[in-house]
Amino acid sequence: MLKLSPPFTAEKMRALKVGDEVLITGTLFTGRDAVHKHLHEGGKLPPQVNLQNGMLYHCGPVVIKDDQGRWKCVAAGPTTSIREEPYQWQVIRDYNLRGVIGKGGMGDKTLAACKEHGCVYLHAIGGAAQVLAERIKRVCGVYMMEEFGAPEAIWEFEVEDFPAVVTIDSHGNSLHKDVFAASQAELAKHL
Q1: Residue 117: active-site member
Q2: Mean pLDDT of all residues in 138-142
Q3: Bridge partners (DSSP) listed for residue 40
Q4: How far apart are CA 138 and CA 121, in angstroms?
Q5: Sequence-distant (≥ 6) Cβ neighbours of residue 7 within 8 angstroms
Q6: Mean pLDDT across the stretch 14-33?
Q7: pLDDT tens digits, 81-136
Q8: 20 to 30 A from 150, CA-CA: which of 78, 143, 160, 183?
Q9: Which domains does the chain have, with CATH numbers?
Q10: How far apart are CA 57 and CA 60, in angstroms?
């Protein structure tokens, strides 16, 4: 397991390759459909949300307030990423994003943006929402809750040893494409 912590630079991301297992420590911002569409259409981020050289997590977390009124994340599983494919390349380009975390992979536009801008796509384990929530040490803030609602809001998490696997690297390699091609080749043998 490779430890990945700030600063998240293009150089650090270019050192990673498909198949690398990482443990991420630092700040993650969540962003799903509403945020991506908002940015694609020219919307702005709140000043507290700095995606420059950052990590964006495709996640609609389950977050509650504790007895002291502080937010606590109780489930933080990844959202299917392909829904963001029409927009993700632009967010990577415009915000110098260095990592995108989700599940299921991304398409050719995101693959090209990762290669051009020194970004990686990291696969988080689906079905492990409570386990992943344990890696969130603090909810630092929530933004755009009124506009988008809790699941689509931008949540700022401080994480420690958040596990993920690099499945698209910044060299144009995609584990998702490789698996699809191998599956198609195997299927063709049986037709």
Answers
A1: no
A2: 97
A3: none
A4: 23
A5: 53
A6: 97
A7: 999 999 999 999 999 999 999 999 999 999 999 999 999 999 999 889 999 999 99
A8: 160
A9: 2-189 (3.20.130.10)
A10: 9
Collapsed DSSP state (helix, strand, coil) of residue 124: coil
Amino acid at 166: V
Single-letter residue type at 23: L
Pairing of strands 120-123, 136-143: unpaired
Question: Which amino acid is residue 149, in one-letter code?
Answer: G
The two tokens of residue 136 are 């969130």
In the numeric block, the tokens 């994003």 are attached to 97
**What is 37-93 written as a DSSP string?**
HHHHTT----TT---TT-EEE-B--EEEE-TTS-EEEEE-PBPBGGGGHHHHHHHHH
Token pair for residue 109?
Answer: 């536009």
Model confidence, pTM: 0.93
144 residue type, one letter: M
